């Protein structure tokens, strides 16, 4: 039996974001049928049962209108005007053709037995195995295999009914568009060469994009968006929109979800005073640097499209006292998350192997780091409403919980890496004329995300290019710091606050530290052809010991010719003699 379908318990009304169903919503019932249909389309609901995540053709709900007994809810019933037929015909060319065809079929019996319509008025003959045609009063009739606008009937088709019909010609078999093969006799002249020497002259012509992988439609859409809409603000920062997908689903207001997650977080922090102190310290830095701003109550309207980001804290695996707050862009509410609606963008990160091989080319090695790379790129103001979060007012634990919004691209957003790398390379392109093409080339080829790895022939060249790169990035308020090098003369050219802790230990220093290294069972040594770098283990919390994806880790090394091999185990005694002739060992 049919019964009236009711939404499941816990379903949310998309108008009010409350627990009552759309069928029970008085505001929805008061709308016109056209307004109801627009609302259903906007929230991608099923027209049969008004539930999300499926279409009416796939709906399994057994519903029946109480007025017309059709398979839809009664509130979606269309009242017909008096004397109005059930469905008004639409006047178009296709229906006109159907009516004409219907009239023609009604006269079929009258013309089928009329001999005059079968009389051949004209004949066009062909060679053997070629088609021929004859004209009757109803038109031309072609017999045999015919080239129909560059297409032939496939020889493997045995159902010849699909090719010829008395009243119309069907060129395709239902939805199958491959019934005909291309015409073998169709030749199109694309170019006429004036001289034989011109033939094949441009076959091996090289272009700038020859080595690039082909990009998907979404990647091209992302790249065009960044090239057109990433601009600098008055302070010099790059400002980019959130790259939403075309035709994306409208995001529901998920403040209730964020509120519940915030309650759980507060309860967790109250049980762990140390984590609570680290959490408030991190959030205080975000607010002090104006990476987030308070949202006034007058802008908090339930009917506006907005998104609230739940957040949680994670500790660095080798820095137990350093906590980072992560915004959960993958949190799902009503079947959708923020990351579901965003383009991820192309993979713009340099290949790690290439970065490492270029890093070992010259004797003077230098490294650097971009400070909080994602936070250097701001979000366009009209998109910040999708980066809202809840936190204590003025970062005071006893204050009320209010709404903030991030003003920069954040960790956790799917497109943030591609946005940051796009902005970094755009900075290099913009400043190449002033700071040099070699700086642009360094930015394009020698960064692995936010880590710089470069080697130069001399100390002077290393200092010069590092300073020009630092100055170029500073024009976009991107800070390059934590410099390290195999040569102390390079480090002497920079201020102490620009250097990384334990920046460099050269060959004579390694010798004096050898006993200390062996006694501590520390990590590894870098020994290029000329120069040394000692890489301490995790107990010294060196910059090099922890790198994303194993830039410098404890599992692999590179031999002089670039082949990989297993390295010494972590904690094993290692001396320069153990790694002589190798580049990386860690």
Structure description:
Helices cover 26% and strands 16% of the residues. It has 586 residues and is of the alpha+beta class. Among the domains are: 1-78, no CATH class; 255-465, no CATH class; 505-586, no CATH class. It has a four-stranded antiparallel β-sheet with strand order 15-16-11-17. Strand 15 and strand 16 form a beta hairpin. The chain is flat and about 105 Å long. The N and C termini lie far apart (71 Å).
Largest sheet: 4 strands, antiparallel
- Oligomeric state of the chains? single chain
Percentage of β-strand residues: 15-25%
Helix segment tally: 13
Total DSSP E strands: 22
Overall pLDDT level: 75
N-to-C CA distance: 71 Å
What is the molecular shape?
flat
Structural class comes to: alpha+beta
Rg, nearest Å: 35 Å
Q: Unreliable runs, pLDDT <50, ≥5 residues?
A: 1-10, 83-98, 156-179, 504-586
Helix share bin: 25-40%
Strand order of the largest sheet: 15-16-11-17
């Amino acid at each position: 039996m049919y019964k009236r379908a009711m939404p499941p318990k816990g379903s949310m009304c998309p108008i009010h974001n409350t627990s009552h169903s759309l069928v029970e919503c008085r505001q929805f019932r008061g709308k016109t049928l056209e307004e109801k249909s627009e609302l259903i389309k906007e929230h991608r609901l099923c027209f049969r049962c008004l539930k999300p995540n499926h279409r009416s053709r796939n709906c399994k709900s057994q519903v029946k209108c109480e007025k017309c007994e059709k398979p839809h809810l009664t509130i979606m019933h269309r009242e017909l005007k008096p004397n109005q037929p059930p469905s008004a015909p639409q006047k178009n060319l296709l229906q006109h053709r159907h009516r004409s065809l219907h009239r023609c079929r009604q006269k079929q019996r009258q013309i089928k037995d009329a001999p005059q319509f079968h009389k051949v008025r004209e004949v066009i003959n062909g060679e053997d195995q070629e088609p021929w045609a004859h004209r009757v009063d109803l038109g031309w009739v072609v017999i045999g295999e015919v080239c129909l606008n560059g297409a032939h009937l496939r020889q493997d088709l045995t159902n010849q009914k699909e090719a010829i019909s008395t009243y119309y010609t069907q060129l395709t078999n239902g939805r199958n568009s491959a019934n005909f093969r291309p015409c073998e006799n169709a030749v199109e002249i694309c170019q006429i060469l004036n001289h034989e020497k011109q033939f094949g002259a441009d076959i091996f012509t090289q272009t700038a994009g020859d080595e690039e992988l082909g990009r998907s439609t979404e990647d091209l859409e992302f790249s065009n968006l960044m090239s057109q809409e990433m601009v600098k603000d008055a302070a010099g920062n790059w400002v980019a929109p959130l790259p939403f997908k075309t035709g994306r689903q409208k995001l529901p207001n998920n403040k209730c979800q964020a509120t519940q997650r915030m309650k759980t977080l507060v309860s967790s922090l109250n049980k762990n005073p140390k984590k609570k102190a680290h959490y408030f310290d991190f959030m205080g830095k975000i607010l002090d640097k104006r990476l987030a701003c308070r949202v006034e109550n007058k802008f908090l309207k339930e009917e506006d499209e907005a998104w609230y980001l739940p957040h949680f804290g994670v500790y660095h695996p080798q820095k137990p006292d350093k906590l980072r707050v992560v915004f959960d862009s993958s949190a799902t509410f009503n079947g959708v998350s923020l990351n579901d609606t965003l383009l991820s963008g192309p993979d713009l990160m340099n290949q790690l192997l290439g970065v490492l091989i270029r890093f070992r080319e010259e004797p003077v090695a230098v490294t650097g780091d971009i400070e909080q790379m994602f936070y250097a790129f701001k979000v366009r103001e009209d998109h910040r409403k999708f980066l809202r979060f809840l936190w204590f007012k003025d970062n005071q634990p006893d204050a009320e919980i209010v709404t903030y919004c991030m003003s920069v691209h954040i960790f956790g957003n799917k497109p943030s890496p591609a946005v940051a790398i796009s902005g970094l390379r755009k900075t290099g392109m913009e400043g190449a004329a002033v700071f040099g093409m070699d700086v642009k080339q360094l930015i394009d080829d020698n960064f692995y995300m936010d880590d710089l790895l470069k080697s130069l022939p001399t100390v002077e060249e290393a200092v010069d290019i590092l300073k020009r790169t630092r100055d170029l990035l500073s024009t976009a308020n991107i800070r390059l710091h934590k410099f390290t090098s195999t040569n102390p003369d390079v480090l002497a050219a920079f201020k102490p606050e620009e250097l990384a802790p334990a920046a460099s230990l050269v060959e004579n220093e390694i010798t004096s530290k050898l006993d200390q290294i062996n006694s501590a069972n520390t990590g590894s040594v870098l020994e290029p052809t000329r120069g040394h770098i000692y890489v301490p283990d995790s107990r010294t919390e060196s910059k090099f010991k922890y790198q994303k994806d194993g830039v410098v880790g404890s599992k692999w090394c590179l031999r002089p010719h670039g082949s990989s091999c297993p390295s010494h185990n972590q904690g094993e005694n290692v001396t320069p003699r153990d790694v002589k002739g190798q580049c990386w060992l860690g």
